[in-house]
Amino acid sequence: MRRILGIALAVLLLGGVVAVVLAGGEKTPPTATKTVKGVIGSEKSEYFRDPDVVKALAGKGYTVKTETSGSWAMDQLALKDFDFAFPSSSEPAPEIEAAAGVKGAQTTKPFFSPLVVIARANAAKVLADNNLAKMTGKNSGTLLMGPYLKAAAEDRNWQDLSGSAAFTELSGRVYIKTTDPATSNSGALFLAATSNVANDKTVVSDEAGIDRTAPLMQKLIRVQGALEPSTDDPFRAFISGSGEPLILAYESQVASLLQQKLDTGAADNMVVLYPDTTVNSPHTFVPISENAKELGSLLASDPKLRELAVRHGFRPQNGVPEFTAATAAHAAYLNPELTGIRQVSAPTVKILMALAARAKG
């Protein structure tokens, strides 16, 4: 009897397996066939950690492991230990290629993000009341770079601005908290934009231009004291309610947080100011090993990965409609078309690093 029952049970189990197979069964999760390691800017960490991104990459055959570094310091790393580098703009890419021994590599720019200045609501109001900014809504506006830089050149304090006395948290010098321009992409591009305005709206291209603009760049940087290596720490400090009243960030950080349903109180106290002169930040994928050769193109072209990039606040190349649609619920904070923003080129790496060195003194 036991033998008969055992046979019957085996038949039932086999039938169950056959039924599952015929019905399609549980889908086997995709298995990655290549493991690649990359060095990236910190603002992309959450993107690569996102389980949906991990799954989408695995479906295309990749397991991606990352470490973070300031974009302008990547060429100083032991790049032979990495399969790719992914700085936050195109400017550091040639130096990275040369240091990695892959000069002429087929780089890709999967997505980009403009720089923004995030302000506390009270700080934004004071700036607007003193014609240093122009509000376009309760939580959005434009930083007027000419007037702002004039105030910086004159060492203006918050107390010098009309209406600031009502807000005791606004004290000391008026300045924007940035990252280290010698190592961090956002800090370097901030100098690129501000030096352009200070140089009669012309890209600084020689030693004379550095001499003309360096004194003002020093005022912008030295007042900050210790400089952060990446945008992540000052951004998190701002959102937590600490930190400075004005910080430099990437639009992607703001857009990502808004899509994650930022706490209402924190959101109400945040104003996103787009500098009226800016340098866009095309995140540039530099393949170092053969294993990562196609990964950059995949990040740029795969529909699912583009969708996930937008979820993390990035703008896919030629993806204004995608970005606008995904962030429509947060239009009060963002400027999807970058209306009224003058986009300028950055100086050469040599000039920009010389300017950063002078600015830091």
Strand content: 15-25%
Number of helices: 15
How many strands appear in the DSSP assignment?
Answer: 13
The biggest sheet amounts to: 6 strands, mixed
Low-confidence stretches: 1-27
**SSE string, helix = H, strand = E?**
HEHHEEHEEHEEHHHHEHHEEEHHEHEH
Q: List the strand order in the largest sheet.
A: 2-1-3-11-4-12
Mean pLDDT: 89
Rg: 25 Å
Q: Residue share in helices?
A: 40-55%
How far the N terminus sits from the C terminus, by CA atoms, comes to 92 Å
| Morphology call | globular
Structural class: alpha/beta
Folded structure, characterized:
- This protein is α/β, with parallel strands linked by helices.
- Helices cover 41% and strands 17% of the residues.
- It has helices at residues 2-22, 45-49, 51-59, 93-100, 121-129, 145-153, 185-198, 207-222, 232-240, 251-259, 264-268, 295-301, 303-311, 320-326, 349-360, and strands spanning 34-40, 62-68, 84-86, 108-113, 115-120, 133-137, 140-143, 246-250, 270-275, 277-278, 281-287, 315-316, 342-343.
Task: Write the topology of this structure.
Elements: H1 2-22, E1 34-40, H2 45-49, H3 51-59, E2 62-68, E3 84-86, H4 93-100, E4 108-113, E5 115-120, H5 121-129, E6 133-137, E7 140-143, H6 145-153, H7 185-198, H8 207-222, H9 232-240, E8 246-250, H10 251-259, H11 264-268, E9 270-275, E10 277-278, E11 281-287, H12 295-301, H13 303-311, E12 315-316, H14 320-326, E13 342-343, H15 349-360
Parallel strand pairs: 1-2, 1-3, 7-9, 10-13
Antiparallel strand pairs: 3-11, 4-11, 4-12, 5-8, 5-9, 6-7
Helix pairs in contact: 7-8, 8-15
